[in-house]
Here is the input.
Amino acid sequence: MAKISYQEFKQKLMDPEVPDSEIAKYLTADRQASGPFDPRIEPDPQKVEMPIEAQMDVESAIRWGNAICRWRRQQAFQNRIASGIRKPVLVSEGDSWHQFPFLIDDVIDHLNPDYLIWSLDAAGDTADNMVNRNPEYMKALVQQKANKVKGFLFSGAGNDVIGEDLLGNPVLATLVKQFQAGKDAAWHIDKAKLANVLTQLEKDYRKLVETVRSDEDFKKLPIFIHGYDYAIPGGFPGDKRHPVYAKQDEWLGAPLKDKGIVDLQLQRGIVRVLIDALYDMLHNVAGNSKQSFVYVVDVRGELKEDDWADEIHATSKAFGGVAARFKKVIDQAI
Here is the structure.
C-alpha cells in the first residue's frame, strides 16, 4: 500500500461517508497504552506520512480514536436526519462493545442500519465515569426529544469484572484466589470482593435509571443494558487470536496463570461465574421489565471460541450476532 500524506488521511477521517473499514487500513495500535476495553488506535507511520505537526495533532487528542469515532458517528447521524431518513432514534452510552474504534465493527455499528443512534460511546469508559464523574447521557436524551427518542442503550461494567482497575491492574488479580487443587471455579472467586464490586455497580446502574426516570417524558423510556458474553482467556496452545493492540493473554489468561490457574476449563469456568454474577446484578436492577422498562439483553452463549477477536471482544462478523439479540429486544420494547 502506497503511503499517503497526513492531509489525505485526515480528509478521509473527516468525511463520515468514508467507511471505517477504509480508514482502518491506515491505522495501527499502541499496545503499551491499550487497556482491556480501551484499544488505543493511531495512524500507522508506515502508511501515513507523520510530520511533527501531525504527531502533535494525534497526541493532543485524548483517546484519539474515540474522539474521531464519536465525531464521525454524530456527523453521520445528523446527515441522516437532515436527509429525511425516518428510523427509530436511540441514544447510546457505553464502552468498547459499543465503540471499538475502526478496527472492529461493534454492536452499534451493526445496529446503525436499522436505527438512528446518537452515540456518546467511548472505548475504555467505565460505569463510574459515565454515571458519576462525567455523565453526558441526560443532556443527549433531552436533546433527542426533538427527534422523538425511543430508547437508551447503556454498556458498562466490563472493566469492573473482567478488565482493569483505575491503576491499570487486572481486576482478576483481586477477585480470584490462589489455585487450589480439587476446588471448582466458584471456590476460586473471592466472594466478598466480588460482592463489593457488584454492590457498587448496582448502585451506579440504579442511579442511571433513576436519573433517566426523573424526566417526566422518560418515565417509560426503554433502557437496554447487557452483561457481555463468556470471554475466553488467551494464551492457550493453538490460540489463533493475535490482536495488534494487546498480548494474547494480557487481561484474562496471564492474571489467572499468575494465580496458578492454568487448566483451561477452570479458567473459562471462573469467567463464566463472574459473567453470570454480573447478569444477576443487572436482572436485580431491571426487575420486571414490563413495569420498569429496563431490559437486560442477554448475549451469553452467542459467541463461540472462533468468534473472539481477543480475550473480551468479538470479531466484526460475530458482533453481528450479538447485535441481532439487541435488535430483537429493542424492537419488542419500542
Residues 174 and 193 are 8 Å apart (CA to CA). The two ends are 46 Å apart (CA to CA). The chain has a mean pLDDT of 92. Residues 191-213 form the longest helix (23 residues).
